[in-house]
Design brief:
570 residues, 1% strand
Length: 570
């Protein structure tokens, strides 16, 4: 690809047909191997759930989701292997025609996939090895894609079926309590539901931790593939000698990526809805026939279930149908930018002067590093104190005496309030600075990207390598700084939100009503996480980080379009 970087059509074909699919496949295999122990735990849980004696209604729910997972898995395998077959037909048809002498308009043996190599591919055995390596990489990629996606779908739909079963158990939970035996039976059944919910939460978090990083590495190239595939499709349609088989392969390949992304978003949306419906089931059950002390236990379940099970893209964004629409919109925006700059890669342009900016960056480096270092130190110290608070909450024992219990709760509440005030102090000190810095970062990233494009278009690019390296380093520093702010802010939000989960995980249902009520008050206070904002307008998070990059890319496309129109008028 690097040897053909000036030819935009060749670069997009190499990336789409070989480099990106193979790289994603390797990431999938490495990620699954790295998390093999977690995946073994998930598989054991699935087998255990199927071995449990369930009623016909519960089995019907499990079989319905099992059939759905088989349908989606077959769809993944069919589209993936079908795409491989279509690519084999397109890639091998030309070499076979050349070997049979039916095609004489070329002077070189065509490869399975177009590409540039640092060696002569027209001599034997280099040609045969190159052909075999390209074909083998595509087979490897198709197997990795279909197996990992099918496994993810099976795990997710099994989790959704178990949440549906838990919802049925919760609806049947309330019964009229007439004596102490009925009360003990209710507590036992509620304890089983509580423990089962925590077990499913851990199941969901294991899936999230296993696949989240993989999805992050996959989604970014997928947006690029959707953009460049659309570009290639337009180029093939506009060409005079369009091959119907190649056109069919491009459409099939594009449908495969669209279906894969849609499947991730659709399954994750089902999981989110099913987990939220646990709170609806707790409210819809006959809780009004229960005594006040027992009905109060359901309040904890309702509060806890309002936090849905989510599958994220590397903690940056939640998979949902809304994210699917945003991906399509982003790909369409990048496609318009790609069409605007096509055939402009080799036009001569001017060089921008960077020396003064370089010295300005050196002078400001000390201020940036000291400011960022102090900010990171403050936030991570606050996160550490929140972790200590979580440990203290986990040590709450139901066997404590009333007086010591109240004293312990008082200490924990005061500590939580103190940490909250510390968070507000950091927020008030830094948020005006972040408001100015974030807006300037968007402009800086946009302009740096524009300058990098201008440098790459120059004919004497080799003379500007040092300038290009400076632009890349400077832009990377801005993006890294922005990412650091969002990362520590996301960590602070996560650790403060975990206070809520830790409180819910303690055996509050075995405490006295007065004690559990105190726990409930802390739980409600912990529902509001600690956040950091940019001037009280926007909350710093991974989602905000992606929005900044998306906004900068949008402004960059506008600048390139203006530059294109300027060149056309000249």
């Amino acid at each position: 690809m690097l040897l053909s970087w000036r030819d935009l059509n060749t670069v997009t074909k190499i990336l789409n047909n070989c480099n990106i699919p193979t790289t994603i496949a390797m990431v999938k295999i490495i990620s699954i191997w790295y998390h093999k122990h977690d995946l073994k735990y998930l598989v054991r849980e699935v087998f255990t759930d199927w071995k449990v004696q369930n009623s016909e209604k519960k089995l019907a729910l499990m079989w319905r989701n099992a059939r759905m997972s088989r349908f989606f898995s077959m769809g993944c395998i069919f589209l993936t292997e079908g795409t491989l077959l279509m690519q084999c037909m397109v890639g091998l048809l030309e070499p076979i025609s050349y070997a049979l002498g039916k095609k004489t308009n070329g002077t070189e043996w065509p490869l399975y996939m177009i590409g540039s190599f640092p060696y002569d591919t027209q001599v034997s055995p280099n040609y045969q090895i190159s052909m075999f390596g390209q074909l083998l990489s595509n087979v490897f990629a198709s197997i990795a894609f279909s197996t990992s996606d099918s496994f993810f779908v099976v795990l997710m739909l099994h989790l959704i079926s178990q949440l549906s079963i838990l919802k049925l158990e919760l609806l049947k939970l309330p019964k009229k309590i007439n004596n102490i035996n009925d009360k003990v039976e209710f507590i036992d059944r509620f304890s089983l539901i509580h423990m089962r919910y925590n077990q499913l939460w851990r199941f969901s978090m294991t899936i999230e931790e296993t696949f989240s990083t993989m999805f992050l590495i996959q989604m970014v190239p997928c947006i690029f593939v959707l953009c460049t595939q659309g570009y290639q499709l337009i180029m093939i349609t506009a060409a005079d000698n369009t091959s119907p088989l190649e056109l069919l392969f491009m459409i099939y390949f594009l449908v495969l990526f669209l279906f894969t992304i849609f499947l991730y978003c659709y399954i994750s949306e089902l999981l989110r809805q099913e987990s939220v419906e646990i709170s609806h089931a707790a409210y819809n059950c006959d809780w009004f026939i229960l005594p006040a002390k027992q009905a109060q236990l359901l309040v904890f379940m309702i509060n806890r279930a309002q936090h849905p099970f989510l599958i994220t893209v590397g903690k940056f964004a939640n998979f949902s149908l809304q994210l699917y629409c945003q991906i399509l919109k982003t790909s369409a925006g990048y496609l318009s930018m790609l069409l605007a700059v096509k055939n402009k890669m080799s036009f001569e342009t001017y060089r921008l002067i960077w020396i003064m900016q370089f010295f300005a960056a050196i002078i400001s480096a000390a201020a940036f590093t000291s400011f960022d270092g102090f900010f990171i130190f403050s936030i991570l110290h606050l996160c550490a104190q929140l972790l200590n608070l979580q440990l203290s909450i986990r040590n709450i024992s139901r066997k404590s005496k009333q007086r010591s219990f109240v004293k312990l709760i008082t200490v924990l509440v005061n500590r939580h309030i103190h940490l909250q005030k510390l968070s507000y102090c950091i927020e008030g000190s830094f948020n005006p600075i972040f408001l100015v810095q974030m807006n300037l970062n968007i402009i800086t990233i946009c302009l740096q990207g524009y300058q990098l494009v201008m440098i790459l278009r120059m004919k004497n690019f080799k003379d500007s390598i040092s300038t290009a390296v400076f632009v890349i380093v400077f832009t990377s520093a801005c993006i890294l700084s922005l990412f650091t702010y969002c990362f520590v802010a996301e960590k602070l939000r996560s650790e403060s939100s975990n206070i809520f989960h830790v409180i819910y995980d303690i055996p509050w249902y075995e405490m006295k009503p007065s004690e559990s009520k105190m726990i409930l008050n802390i739980m409600q206070a912990a529902m509001k996480p600690f956040t950091l904002t940019a001037g009280k307008l926007l909350e710093l998070s991974f989602n905000y980080f992606t929005k900044v990059l998306n906004c900068s890319a949008g402004y960059l496309s506008i600048l390139l379009a203006i530059q294109k129109n300027k060149n056309d008028t000249q």
